[in-house]
Write a structure and sequence with these properties.
The protein has three helices and eight strands. By secondary structure, the protein is an alpha/beta fold.
């Protein structure tokens, strides 16, 4: 099975919030900066807010090459970054003007947990508000 890119070349990317996300079909790739949706996604995937970079809350823990986003998630039994609080995670999301891009889970399948943090400006041409 071929995996689709999280940033589609042809179809517009749907920007969603808590009021519109559930209107999108399973498997749809969507973008959001809605705190509630991101926390729900993280809870479903056992993901915890984290960083590898030095911030006011602590030192750098690893060399990170992510274009300055600085934030990520820790997943059980996968590379561990320094845990941070949700407030710091969201502050970074907004400071760097990022959108959280993910694929809506399809019922009956195992979720991949794939996500990307993408600058809003990079997606402007491909975003369609739901």
């Amino acid at each position: 099975m071929t995996r689709r890119s999280l940033i589609p070349d042809v179809e517009p990317l749907q920007r969603v919030d808590t009021a519109t996300a559930r209107d999108q079909p399973p498997g749809t790739i969507v973008a959001t900066d809605d705190h509630e949706l991101i926390r729900e996604w993280a809870a479903r995937h056992s993901a915890e807010p984290a960083t590898g970079e030095a911030t006011a809350s602590g030192p750098a823990t690893t060399q990170v090459r992510d274009g300055g986003a600085g934030i990520r998630f820790n997943f059980p039994a996968v590379a561990r970054f320094r845990p941070i609080m949700w407030d710091e995670w969201f502050e970074n999301l907004h400071q760097h003007q990022l959108l959280f891009v993910y694929e809506r889970d399809e019922p009956g399948t195992t979720s991949s947990g794939r996500y990307r943090l993408v600058p809003k400006a990079q997606l402007d041409a491909t975003i369609k508000n739901a």
